[in-house]
Design goal:
19 helices, single chain, nine-stranded mixed sheet, 550 residues, 25% strand, GMP Synthetase, Chain A, domain 3, Rossmann fold, alpha/beta
C-alpha cells in the first residue's frame, strides 16, 4: 500500500530520506475508500485491528470486516441525517466503535471530532457551540452520558445523540442496533476534495479556551512518515500505541500511518493503566512494536521485566516529553531495544524524529522529517546557530506541507497569529546540536529570562524529576529586581517525603539541580503544593502559577 503513495519506500540514511522521500497525493483522497476498502478488495483476510479489553475479550478484525462494519456505520449515520461537512463528536474511549465511526465519517465526507471522556457539561457545551456539532456518539457509560444529557439544553445544534451501550438512556439512539439494521451502504456521489475538513481536535492549550485544529482529507498521508519510518512498521507488525482515542496521539499511532503501512493495530481497552497488565499484553499477544510517553516506560522498568517474555518486541518509540537517559539505558539493558524519540503537535504530523538509520541521543527529539522545512528562529527573527535557542517554525512559502493543519476553525485571528509571512510558528523552543539533533527547551511563553540567560522549564523539570522526593513539578519565572526573573519550582512531593517540607529539603533539591544540569538553572524559589493546576489533557497550566505570583 505504501508504495502507492511514495516514489521510494526504503531509505538507508538521513541524506537518502531527505533527497528521496516524496508523497504522491491522489485527487480527492479518502482514507476510508483509498486505504481501508483498497486493502479489503486486495487482501480481504489481512489483519487490520486486534481489539482486547481488561475483561478478557478480544476481537481480531480483518480488512474485509472493517469494510463491512464501517460501511454499515456510514449507512446508519446517513439514516440519522449525517452527510458531507457535518460535525460529529466521538467520545468513545478505546471502544472498537471508534474505528467504525471515524472511518465511516470519512466515507461520508463528514467531520470527525474525537474527544476525551473526561469532558464535563461545561466542556461539552463549549465544543458543541464552537463547532456547531450535529451529532455525538459516545461510549455507553452512565457518567459520560449524564454529562452529555446535561449539556444538551444549551447545545442547540445537536440533533442526535448515540450510545454504544450497555447504558442507552431515553433520547439516545442505540449504536449496535443501528448498524445491525442498517440498509446497504451507497457511496455518496461527491464525498470530498483534498481541501475539505475531515478531522478536528480541540486542543486544550495551557492558556485560554481550547482551539479547534482543523485537518483536511490529505492529513492521513502526512502520517506515512509516522507509521513507516518513525514506528518502522511493516506488514507483519503488531503495533500498540498507548493513547485514548480522545487525543490526537490516537490517530498518530492507532489508525492512519499504521494501516497505510499494513500493520495490525493492537488496542487494549482498559480503565486503569497497570504496568504488569501492559507487559502481560505485550508478552501474550507477541506485540512487535510499541509507542508510549517516557512516563509509561518509567513505570514499566519499575516492574521486574525478567518475569515477562518481551522477545517479540522489535521496535519502540516515545514522545510527549523528554526522555531521561537513565530510562533509556535501563530499558535498553533489559530488552536490547533502543527507544526512538519523536516530536509533533496536534497541528502537525511527526515533525522531528529519530529514524531507524540513526543513532538515538536520549532526550533529543531527533532530526526534521523531510516533509517539513524546519528552522529555529531567535527572538530577533534570525535563524539560530547550532547551540542557540530558537522557536521551531515550519516554512510554508511554497505551499502547505502535507500533514500541517488547515486552520484554527472559525478563528482567523488565531490562525494569522500562528501562521504568517510564509511561516507556521509552533510556539515551541528548542536548540540544535552540531549533529543536527533538536533538543526541546519549552513553550515560547514559558521560557524564563534570568540575568541574560534563557532558561527552558523543561530541562529544570526533568532534572528535578530525577530526585526521589519529586512526583510532579512546574518551573516558572518570578519577577526579580536584580535578575529580571528567577527560576521558581512548584513541587508535589512523593508520599515518603510528605511532611518533610523544610529549608534542608529545599537546599537538597537546589543542589540536586545544580549537579544534574547547569548550575545557573537551579530554582532559587521553591514552593510545595498538593497538586498542580492542569488542563483537561493533563498539561500543566504554568500560566496559572505565573498569574498567582504576580
Amino acid at each position: 500500500m505504501v508504495e502507492r503513495f511514495l516514489t521510494q519506500t526504503t531509505f538507508t540514511s538521513q541524506e537518502d530520506f531527505i533527497k528521496n522521500f516524496h508523497i504522491k497525493v491522489p485527487e480527492n483522497f479518502n482514507f476510508g475508500y483509498d486505504v481501508i476498502d483498497a486493502w479489503a478488495a486486495e487482501q480481504p483476510d489481512k489483519k487490520a485491528l486486534l481489539w482486547t479489553n481488561d475483561k478478557g475479550e478480544h476481537r481480531q478484525y480483518t480488512y474485509a470486516d472493517l469494510k463491512k462494519y464501517t460501511d454499515r456505520t456510514a449507512s446508519y449515520f446517513q439514516s440519522l441525517g449525517i452527510g458531507k461537512g457535518d460535525m460529529v463528536m466521538l467520545v468513545l474511549k478505546r471502544r472498537y466503535e471508534f474505528w467504525y465511526s471515524i472511518i465511516a465519517l470519512h466515507k461520508l465526507g463528514a467531520v470527525a471530532i474525537p474527544a476525551t471522556h473526561l469532558l464535563t457539561k461545561k466542556d461539552i457545551v463549549y465544543r458543541c457551540n464552537a463547532a456547531s456539532i450535529k451529532m455525538i456518539v459516545a461510549a455507553g457509560e452512565e457518567i459520560i452520558l449524564q454529562h452529555i444529557k446535561d449539556a444538551l439544553p444549551e447545545s442547540p445544534t445537536v440533533e442526535k445523540v448515540v450510545s454504544t451501550g450497555p447504558c442507552i438512556p431515553q433520547g439516545f439512539e442505540d449504536f449496535g442496533k443501528g448498524i445491525e439494521q442498517a440498509a446497504p451502504f451507497v457511496r455518496p456521489e461527491k464525498v470530498n476534495t483534498n481541501e475539505d475538513i475531515s478531522l478536528m481536535y480541540f486542543t486544550s492549550g495551557t492558556t485560554g479556551e481550547p482551539k479547534m485544529v482543523a485537518h483536511d482529507f490529505t492529513y492521513p498521508l502526512g502520517h506515512i512518515s509516522t507509521g513507516s519510518y518513525w514506528h518502522n512498521l511493516h506488514e507483519d507488525s503488531l503495533h500498540l500505541t498507548i493513547a485514548d482515542t480522545g487525543w490526537g496521539k490516537a490517530v498518530w499511532g492507532k489508525l492512519y500511518g499504521q494501516m497505510i503501512a499494513g500493520a495490525n493495530v493492537f488496542v487494549y481497552d482498559h480503565e486503569k493503566f497497570t504496568p504488569s497488565e501492559m507487559l502481560k499484553k505485550i508478552q501474550d499477544y507477541h506485540i512487535t512494536s510499541f509507542c508510549a510517553p517516557p512516563t509509561i516506560y518509567r513505570f514499566l522498568i519499575r516492574e521486574d521485566l525478567t518475569k515477562y517474555d518481551l522477545s517479540s518486541l522489535e521496535y519502540c518509540t516515545t514522545a510527549g516529553e523528554a526522555l531521561n537517559s537513565a530510562v533509556y539505558d535501563t530499558f535498553k539493558e533489559l530488552t536490547g531495544i533502543r527507544l526512538m524519540e519523536g516530536f509533533g503537535q496536534t497541528e502537525t504530523t511527526l515533525t522531528l524524529g529519530t529514524f531507524p538509520w540513526m543513532e538515538p541521543k536520549p532526550g533529543s527529539m531527533g532530526v526534521p522529517n523531510p516533509q517539513y522545512d524546519i528552522d529555529l528562529l531567535t527572538p530577533d527573527g534570525r535563524s539560530a546557530e547550532d547551540g542557540e535557542q530558537g522557536q521551531i517554525v515550519i516554512h510554508t512559502a511554497n505551499g502547505k506541507p502535507l500533514g500541517l493543519f488547515k486552520e484554527y476553525y472559525r478563528n482567523q485571528e488565531l490562525t494569522d497569529e500562528a501562521w504568517h509571512d510564509g511561516l507556521y510558528y509552533t510556539g515551541d523552543v528548542a536548540w540544535r546540536d552540531e549533529d543536527g539533533y533538536y533538543w526541546f527547551v519549552g513553550r515560547a511563553d514559558d521560557v524564563i529570562k534570568s540575568s541574560g540567560y534563557r532558561i527552558g522549564p523543561f530541562e529544570v523539570e526533568s532534572a528535578l524529576m530525577t530526585h526521589p522526593a519529586v512526583v510532579e513539578c512546574a518551573i516558572t519565572g518570578v519577577p526579580d529586581e536584580v535578575r529580571g526573573q528567577v527560576v521558581k519550582a512548584t513541587i508535589v512531593l512523593s508520599r515518603n517525603y510528605k511532611g518533610q517540607e523544610s529549608p534542608e529539603l529545599i537546599k537538597e533539591l537546589q543542589d540536586h539541580v545544580k549537579r544534574v544540569t547547569a548550575p545557573y538553572k537551579y530554582p532559587r524559589v521553591i514552593e510545595f503544593v498538593e497538586e498542580l493546576p492542569k488542563t483537561i489533557s493533563g498539561k500543566i497550566r504554568r500560566v496559572e502559577i505565573r498569574d498567582k505570583d504576580k
